[in-house]
Amino acid sequence: MARLLAVLSCLVLFMGASHAQEPVFETRASHAVIMDFDTGEILFSKDGDVPMPPSSMSKLMTALMVFEALEAGTLSLDDELPVSVRAWREGGAASGGSTMFLEVNSRARVDDLLRGIIVQSGNDACIVVAEAIGGSEEAFADMMNRRARELGLETVNFVNSTGLTAEGHVVSAADLARLARHIITAHPEFYRLYSETTFTYNGIRQANRNPLLGVFDGADGLKTGYTSEAGYGLTASAVRGNERRIIVFNGMDTMRDRANEAERLMRAAFADFVMADLAEPGRVVGEAQIYLGQSRTVPLRTTGPVRAAMHRRERQGLRAEIVYDGPLHAPVAEGDEVARLVVTLPGGREIEYPLEAAESVNRQGVVSRAMSALVNLIRG
Fold first, then answer.
1. Cis peptide before 331, with omega less than 30 degrees from 0?
2. CA-CA 20 to 30 A from 84: which of 167, 265, 349, 373?
């Protein structure tokens, strides 16, 4: 594999001097990601792909299962579901955890249960819908895992519907961001529930725990989490102008720490991180050598937009190189994907983009090939 290290003159417009840099952004969270909603690109990650206990952020998946059951017609918002002894004991007022305050052996409308899950973070509401959809919470957790895999969430392992501490119950921050993006994209009619600031059930009014709602302009969801094992975490999204960002973080020590870090991360998500346009589609960025071709080189062009997720300051330290199996062997047809453009950010992260031949290069005739072979033999 030939790795051409000479920086191409046509790439100077989006490159700066390569030099060592201190980390451009840090967080005290144990795990964190910032995602660009439109592209799904991760703008920042701190152990973002490492599985972690997600606590009540698991309820994003629980709610998604309800959304899909409603869409499939197996549930309706007016259905009334039974509250089992288990749901009351493990998730109700008797449990001491987050609860919707459902009464044992009562029935609750799906419409209310959704708000109990999303606004009040009710563990009892989660168990009620899990038992209704899956037959048991254990079977429902298996359904959650299967659906998560279908969505490409590879780090997911749900053991229950609530996020209560259980051995092996994990998911990465990056996969939570992908899950949030899917909910926003696929279920906008239900996503609006995540911006509701209060919900009253059984005469008890509870506030949405998302610290960004009403504080950060444009914040409209999604879900907090806390267990003693995981610490305080948040999956949140906000939109400003034509941009939306998703942040996920975990491992904060207190609710106040979570609120402060949520605002800091979301402000940075819009102010400091960008999807930088480095080159437009069809731009010629260099050339590749050709063996036994009627031309010694072939120009290379981008097949699509060259965009990179980065901190604004990282743009000054970008480095680019063209990589291909070389020299290429003629004939080469215009449009053949023959190389890659590798952009390296200051921290060492590499992003690759395909390059194609910008024109065709035919093979040399018999005599010319013989002469080329002789020249190569002499040169060794």
1. yes
2. 167
pTM, to two decimals: 0.84
Return the pLDDT at 4.
42
Instruction: Give the active site residue among 45, 55, 56, 84.
Output: 56
Q: Which residues of the chain have pLDDT under 50?
A: 1-20, 367, 369-370
Q: How many residues does the chain have?
A: 380
What residues does 343 pair with on adjacent strands? 320, 351
Residue tagged 């999956």 (tokens):
235
> Is residue 55 annotated as part of the catalytic site, yes or no?
no
Looking at this protein, which amino acid is placed at residue 65? M
What is the enclosing helix (H) or strand (E) of 265?
Answer: helix 255-271
Annotated catalytic residue within 59, 98, 172, 237: 59
pLDDT in tens, 235-249: 999 999 999 999 999
pLDDT tens-digit profile of 36-58?
999 999 999 999 999 999 999 99
Q: How many other C-beta atoms are found inside a 10 Å radius of the C-beta of residue 225? A: 26
The C-alpha atoms of residue 252 and residue 226 are separated, in whole angstroms, by: 9
Closest-CA residue to 100 (of 213, 199, 235): 199
Measured CA distances, 137 to 62, 99, 140, 149, 157 (Å): 11, 17, 5, 18, 14
Write out pLDDT tens, residues 63-102. Answer: 999 999 999 999 999 999 999 999 999 999 989 999 999 9
Active-site hit among 121, 161, 172, 237: 121
**Residue 46 falls in the annotated catalytic set:** no
Establish whether 56 is a catalytic residue.
Answer: yes
Q: Which helix (H) or strand (E) covers residue 4, if one does?
A: strand 2-4
- Inter-helix orientation angle 123-134/137-150, to 10°: 80
CB-hemisphere CA count at 13 Å for 16? Answer: 11
The pair of three-digit structure tokens given for residue 359, joined into one six-digit string: 């024109």
